[in-house]
Design brief:
Strand content: under 5%
Number of strands: 2
Number of helices: 6
Structural class: mainly alpha
Length: about 180
Protein backbone atom coordinates (compact mmCIF):
# COMPACT_ATOMS: atom_id res chain seq x y z
CA UNK A 1 0.00 0.00 0.00
CA UNK A 2 1.44 3.32 -0.98
CA UNK A 3 2.19 5.84 1.74
CA UNK A 4 -0.39 8.55 2.11
CA UNK A 5 0.49 11.83 0.45
CA UNK A 6 1.87 14.37 2.84
CA UNK A 7 0.28 17.72 2.30
CA UNK A 8 2.78 20.39 1.53
CA UNK A 9 2.31 23.76 3.05
CA UNK A 10 2.90 26.64 0.82
CA UNK A 11 3.84 29.94 2.34
CA UNK A 12 0.99 32.39 2.22
CA UNK A 13 1.45 35.19 -0.22
CA UNK A 14 2.32 38.31 1.76
CA UNK A 15 0.00 41.22 1.25
CA UNK A 16 1.29 43.94 -1.00
CA UNK A 17 3.11 46.54 1.00
CA UNK A 18 1.65 49.97 0.73
CA UNK A 19 3.73 53.01 1.44
CA UNK A 20 2.91 54.76 4.71
CA UNK A 21 0.51 57.65 4.51
CA UNK A 22 2.42 60.94 4.53
CA UNK A 23 1.92 62.88 7.80
CA UNK A 24 0.34 65.76 5.90
CA UNK A 25 -2.46 63.51 4.66
CA UNK A 26 -2.94 61.97 8.11
CA UNK A 27 -3.21 65.38 9.81
CA UNK A 28 -5.46 66.80 7.09
CA UNK A 29 -7.72 63.74 7.15
CA UNK A 30 -8.00 63.83 10.92
CA UNK A 31 -8.72 67.56 10.88
CA UNK A 32 -11.45 67.11 8.27
CA UNK A 33 -13.03 64.25 10.25
CA UNK A 34 -13.01 66.28 13.47
CA UNK A 35 -14.43 69.36 11.73
CA UNK A 36 -17.19 67.30 10.14
CA UNK A 37 -18.08 65.77 13.52
CA UNK A 38 -18.04 69.17 15.26
CA UNK A 39 -20.28 70.72 12.60
CA UNK A 40 -22.73 67.82 12.80
CA UNK A 41 -22.85 68.10 16.60
CA UNK A 42 -23.24 71.85 16.64
CA UNK A 43 -24.25 73.49 13.37
CA UNK A 44 -22.84 77.00 13.33
CA UNK A 45 -20.21 76.13 15.95
CA UNK A 46 -17.04 78.06 15.09
CA UNK A 47 -14.15 75.76 14.31
CA UNK A 48 -10.42 76.25 14.45
CA UNK A 49 -7.20 74.33 14.01
CA UNK A 50 -4.27 75.26 16.23
CA UNK A 51 -1.16 75.94 14.19
CA UNK A 52 2.20 74.87 15.51
CA UNK A 53 4.54 77.84 16.01
CA UNK A 54 7.04 77.11 13.27
CA UNK A 55 7.43 79.67 10.49
CA UNK A 56 9.28 77.30 8.17
CA UNK A 57 6.56 75.17 6.57
CA UNK A 58 8.98 72.38 5.60
CA UNK A 59 10.27 72.17 9.17
CA UNK A 60 6.71 72.19 10.59
CA UNK A 61 5.83 69.40 8.16
CA UNK A 62 8.80 67.34 9.33
CA UNK A 63 7.90 67.92 12.97
CA UNK A 64 4.14 67.37 12.92
CA UNK A 65 2.94 67.04 9.35
CA UNK A 66 1.31 70.46 9.37
CA UNK A 67 1.60 73.07 6.64
CA UNK A 68 0.40 76.67 6.88
CA UNK A 69 -1.36 76.17 3.52
CA UNK A 70 -2.80 72.85 4.68
CA UNK A 71 -5.82 71.74 2.64
CA UNK A 72 -7.86 71.58 5.88
CA UNK A 73 -6.93 75.14 6.82
CA UNK A 74 -9.38 76.88 4.49
CA UNK A 75 -12.32 74.83 5.81
CA UNK A 76 -11.95 75.97 9.42
CA UNK A 77 -13.55 79.22 10.50
CA UNK A 78 -10.53 80.74 12.22
CA UNK A 79 -7.27 78.94 12.91
CA UNK A 80 -5.52 80.02 16.08
CA UNK A 81 -1.79 80.37 15.35
CA UNK A 82 0.15 79.61 18.54
CA UNK A 83 3.39 81.58 18.32
CA UNK A 84 4.49 81.05 21.90
CA UNK A 85 6.50 84.24 21.70
CA UNK A 86 8.32 83.84 25.02
CA UNK A 87 9.71 80.37 24.21
CA UNK A 88 11.73 81.51 21.15
CA UNK A 89 12.53 84.73 23.04
CA UNK A 90 10.41 86.92 20.77
CA UNK A 91 8.48 90.02 21.88
CA UNK A 92 4.70 89.75 22.35
CA UNK A 93 4.24 91.85 19.18
CA UNK A 94 5.49 88.82 17.20
CA UNK A 95 2.06 87.24 17.75
CA UNK A 96 0.46 89.84 15.46
CA UNK A 97 3.15 89.32 12.81
CA UNK A 98 2.49 85.58 12.79
CA UNK A 99 -1.29 86.18 12.64
CA UNK A 100 -0.85 88.46 9.62
CA UNK A 101 1.30 85.84 7.88
CA UNK A 102 -1.30 83.10 8.49
CA UNK A 103 -4.08 85.40 7.25
CA UNK A 104 -2.09 86.04 4.07
CA UNK A 105 -1.71 82.29 3.47
CA UNK A 106 -5.43 81.75 4.16
CA UNK A 107 -6.36 84.58 1.79
CA UNK A 108 -4.18 83.06 -0.92
CA UNK A 109 -5.41 79.51 -0.26
CA UNK A 110 -9.08 80.26 0.32
CA UNK A 111 -9.23 83.19 -2.09
CA UNK A 112 -10.74 85.47 0.56
CA UNK A 113 -8.80 88.51 1.80
CA UNK A 114 -11.17 88.86 4.78
CA UNK A 115 -10.21 85.50 6.23
CA UNK A 116 -9.87 85.69 10.02
CA UNK A 117 -7.58 84.00 12.51
CA UNK A 118 -7.54 83.87 16.33
CA UNK A 119 -4.01 84.72 17.49
CA UNK A 120 -2.99 83.10 20.78
CA UNK A 121 -1.33 85.62 23.12
CA UNK A 122 0.64 84.16 26.01
CA UNK A 123 -0.21 85.83 29.32
CA UNK A 124 2.48 84.27 31.50
CA UNK A 125 5.54 82.08 31.56
CA UNK A 126 4.89 80.90 35.11
CA UNK A 127 6.60 77.55 35.75
CA UNK A 128 3.66 76.64 37.98
CA UNK A 129 1.17 76.97 35.13
CA UNK A 130 3.67 75.50 32.64
CA UNK A 131 3.95 72.41 34.87
CA UNK A 132 7.72 72.57 34.70
CA UNK A 133 8.01 73.23 30.95
CA UNK A 134 10.15 76.13 29.77
CA UNK A 135 7.73 78.78 28.59
CA UNK A 136 10.52 81.31 28.26
CA UNK A 137 11.32 84.47 30.21
CA UNK A 138 8.59 86.21 32.22
CA UNK A 139 5.83 87.92 30.26
CA UNK A 140 5.86 91.34 31.88
CA UNK A 141 2.91 93.72 32.01
CA UNK A 142 4.74 96.38 29.93
CA UNK A 143 5.67 93.72 27.35
CA UNK A 144 2.13 92.33 27.35
CA UNK A 145 0.40 95.73 27.19
CA UNK A 146 0.23 96.15 23.38
CA UNK A 147 0.00 92.46 22.41
CA UNK A 148 -3.80 91.96 22.73
CA UNK A 149 -4.59 95.11 20.73
CA UNK A 150 -1.99 94.26 18.07
CA UNK A 151 -3.35 90.71 17.87
CA UNK A 152 -6.91 92.03 17.57
CA UNK A 153 -5.88 94.27 14.68
CA UNK A 154 -4.09 91.36 12.98
CA UNK A 155 -6.90 88.86 13.53
CA UNK A 156 -9.30 90.11 10.89
CA UNK A 157 -12.05 90.74 13.43
CA UNK A 158 -12.00 87.53 15.47
CA UNK A 159 -9.87 88.82 18.32
CA UNK A 160 -7.15 87.09 20.28
CA UNK A 161 -7.20 84.10 22.58
CA UNK A 162 -5.35 84.82 25.83
CA UNK A 163 -3.56 81.77 27.20
CA UNK A 164 -3.57 80.75 29.95
CA UNK A 165 -6.39 82.76 31.50
CA UNK A 166 -4.84 82.29 34.93
CA UNK A 167 -1.99 84.54 33.80
CA UNK A 168 -4.24 87.59 33.68
CA UNK A 169 -3.36 89.11 37.03
CA UNK A 170 -4.67 92.56 38.01
CA UNK A 171 -2.06 94.64 36.13
CA UNK A 172 -2.35 92.54 32.95
CA UNK A 173 -6.17 92.61 33.15
CA UNK A 174 -6.04 96.42 33.35
CA UNK A 175 -3.57 96.52 30.45
CA UNK A 176 -5.94 94.32 28.46
CA UNK A 177 -8.91 96.59 29.21
CA UNK A 178 -6.87 99.62 28.17
CA UNK A 179 -5.68 97.94 24.95
CA UNK A 180 -9.17 96.90 23.93
CA UNK A 181 -10.88 100.15 24.98
Amino acid sequence: MPAPAVPTASAPTPPALTPPTPPREVITGLARDLLTTARRAGPGLPTGLFLVPEKDGARRARLVGQYAAEPALPVVDAPPPMPYHAIPRRPPAWVAAVARAVRAVRAETAGSPGTAVVPVVRTTSSPVLARGADWGPPVTTPGFRAAPGDALDASGGRGPCLFPGEGLDGPKARALADALD
